[in-house]
Structure formats: structure tokens, C-alpha cells
Amino acid sequence: YVNTGLALVLNNTYKFEVTVDPAGKSWDGTVTNLATFETHTSTNLGWRIDTTLETGNPDAILSGLMQFCGRGNDSNDKRIFAVDSIQVHQEQSFTIGGMSQVVARFNDGETEEAVDGFVGMAGNGWNSAWSTRNDRATLAAAVSSANELKSGGGNCLEMTVTVGNTFTYGYGAGGVTRDYARVNETGIDWTQDHTIQFTVRIDEDMDAFSTSFTDVNDKYQIFDQAYARGGISGDTIWGAFANGDALGSSYWTFLDGSDVRTTGIALTQYGVYDFTIDINAAERTYDVTLVSGLDSFTAEDLDWRNPGIDYVGGFLNFMARGNETGEVRAWSIDDIVITAASSIPTDIPGDANNDGRVDADDAKALADNWGKSGDAAWADGDFNGDLKVDAKDAAILAANWGYVWSPAAPAAEGSIAGVPEPGAAALLLTMAAGLALGFDRRW
Length: 443
Description:
CATH topology of the largest domain: Jelly Rolls
Strand content: 25-35%
Largest sheet: 8 strands, antiparallel
CATH superfamily of the largest domain: Galactose-binding domain-like
Number of domains: 3
Distance between the termini: 22 Å
Structural class: mainly beta
Helix content: under 10%
Number of strands: 20
Radius of gyration: 26 Å
């Protein structure tokens, strides 16, 4: 037994969350007193009966019976309690077949036995592990948890490319690439519109930048095409890059057909850059957004490098190069997310930001606009369309708290609850208020 330290108090409301891991035969539990905001979490708790999960073994089947019971030891004992807002949902896994998103965040560290590792393995929408490339250069790539790209971001992939012999070709290059498009499974069609997001940090010593990053063959490149390659070519779909400059000033630039678009956002040591690439497959164009601190750049309808090709890329390449022997390029990547453009509905009750989840971000939107009347919108937390943000909207949010949309369980099939009766609304409003104050837990 684990003692939570939370006492039972008359008329106090307690929120419970249980996350079950059938494969590990374990579970995590969190209980919160919503009156005092005291909370306790225990992880990796063992099952009461440790059976093996084998097909045909009746003792191995999860019962599916959720029970709420009171007990006493005297004939006059009386236990009185109430329950509400019970939700059971499966955590979204993005498995192949019916999936809408693939991600790489290097959360599994350096391994060949997990998809989100480095070099990782095929699965969850990736057709391959990460592959490395060395063209007259030496690549060193390692997962790091010590140097997050952003606070709380966790692992990233750090890379350095040391240039070798440049006598024949004038440069050396190295980097990593991964195939996301060549997965022939139902539910995955990256030949249609989709969005590619990733974050980059430049780690190169900027004191030496003005002398070592000065040539057109000094480059950082991110691009998409139908095969792994050491640099942008005539077969590239879209590309973002920064070239060396004789004056020591280099800016991120995007391909636009045979032309380019310069962003005006400069490379700086430890500068962090968030990229969003929106692919329009039918028009053979793409939209881009680049954000770094307070600086941002947006452009629409950029042409593919070669609009005449009949495929939509599929290999995501992160490459760096240099023009002199011994030069070193250093950078890090993280938060690679590829999403089908039309996958998430925009009318999920309680989902203020339309990200397919009803969670603390939506509760914050509702809390920030609490009491707004006359011109409230969905993004403000007006989920019933009465142009107000009030207890009815809080009830809708709380009733659907924890919902995660997936193609296999669309909202239209009854995964979302309706507005509760007025008697339940007060309890749900209390819970929503707790969420707005900073709770970020699943039910």
C-alpha cells in the first residue's frame, strides 16, 4: 500500500487519474484535493494480481468493470459519497494504419530498438531508422538531455560535421536523414497536403564564424526529396538553408522555384529556430513560417524547386557542409512533427485551440476570457455559441476533459459527452477552475 497523505474531508472533491500499462502490468495513480490543491502521484505500481497477458488465458483479461464501493464493520455504519465525470480513453499512439501524424523527439535516447531513438527503427509512420551521411567529412551525432533546445524540451540530437579533404569537390558534408513517406499502409498518405515542423539550434562558435562561414559552400540545409542526399539538388521539393557570407552575416533562406526568399533572420550561436512548412501537394507550392525569439518570417505559395516531378518528397534531410579541411559545423535538432493537414476536426466540444485535445491549454483559454459577453468566440471558450464564456462552457470543457481525437475514434461516433445536468455543472465548474489554475493531468 502507498499512503497518499491526503485526508478525507467532508464536502471536499477529489480528482483521480489512473494510467494503466498492460504490457508492463503496472499503473500510475494521481489524486488531487480540488479544495486545497494538495496532490499525490505514485508511479509504476504493481497490479494486485500479476497475471500474464496471454491469448486464451481468462485470468489475463482486464475485467473492464470499474467499481465504486463503500464498506463498514458495524450494522449501523453508513458511507456516503458521490461520483461524477467518469471518462475512460486510450492514449493516442499514432500506430500505422489510420494515423495522422509522425514525430521524432529522441525521447528514447540512443538505441536501435525504439522508434523515437537515434538511430531508432522503422515504425509509427517512419519507414526507416535515421541514417547518417558523410561526404568527405566526419559526422558526430549524439542524443543529449543536458542541452535542451527549449526549457522542458527534453532530449535533442546534437551534430558536428568536421570537414575532410575538399581538394576534388570543394566541400565536405554530413548529416542525418529519415524516410517518412514510403509507408504503404491505410491511413497514411503524405502525397496529400501535410505540415512539417521542426526546431533547430546553431551551436557553432560564432567567434570563428566570420572567418570559417564565409563561402557559398559553407551551409546549413534542411530539405525534402525522394531520396537521401548530401545537399539540395534539382529534385528537391522544398528547402531551407543558410550560406556562408564574406562579411560574416548569414540569413535563413527558402527555395522558391529557381529563386529564393531571404528571411532576414540571421544565424547566431545558440539561436533557436522554429520552422513550419505547409505542403500544398495539388498546387506544387508550400507556405513557410520561421520564428526565432521575437523575430518571425512568413511566406505563402513558394514554388517547389522542380514543380514537374510526380512525387512529394518523403526523405527529410538535415545536412551541413564546409569548404575547407578542418572546418566544423555544429547544430542540434528536435521536435520533428509531420501532420496530415485535414485530420483534426474544428468542432470538438471543449477544444478551444482546435488541436484535437481537450486539456489545460483549453482550460486556460476559457479562464482568460471568463465573463466575456456579446462577442465571445470558440477560441475564447464559448463552446455553446451563445457569445458568452460562463459556467455552461466550463461544464462542456470539464465533461470532455482528457479527450484525444484520432482517426480511429472521431467525435461523431459519440466519444464526446454532452452538456451535463445543472446539478453536475457546479462540480464540473469547480474542476475546470482547478484546471485553469494550472493542472495539466489526464483523467
